[in-house]
Amino acid sequence: EAFDEILRPLNVLLKISLDMDELYDNSYTLDILLSAIHVVVDISSKAVKKNNDATNPELIVQCIRTCKTPDTKATALLILAKQASCASSAEYVMHNSIPIFTQNPFSVAW
Asked: Contact, 89 vs 57, CB < 8 A?
């Protein structure tokens, strides 16, 4: 439960940062937030021996789709992989992983 108290504000900051992404380049902010979330999720999964549900998989998927930096995408994928082992978000992660790895032909600039 202590990990949930740490992850909730990080999720709020991540959502705000993603919403502000259109106004300015916030790659560094996203990288810092995702790195912090990854550390907390990793430590909590080792300490509690189960994953918690405090991380919002929808925000993580949005990060993977919109981030411009490969390192940030890699960190988000690591968080998503940890969340996939959690029973309550496993189905959500499975259904939302497919669009991440498929290419949209209409997104290519001509």
From this structure: yes
